[in-house]
Amino acid sequence: MKNQWIDLFFSWLPFLSLIAVWFAFSKRMNVTKMSTDLHEHYERQIAETQRMNTLLERIAVSLEKRATE
Fold it and tell me: The pTM is what?
């Protein structure tokens, strides 16, 4: 019976060590700061896209006025 538990432990050991290494790397890389930076970047990108859409709408209105004249 003891031998089965030892075999089970050693069969799971590589998987558990891989999870431990993954946790260590995620803590080291400070994942929360990276996600905050990405969130800020996405917000700036959305604001820039909205600004460009406004300018393109103004250009479209101006071109439509020229076409009717």
Answer: 0.50
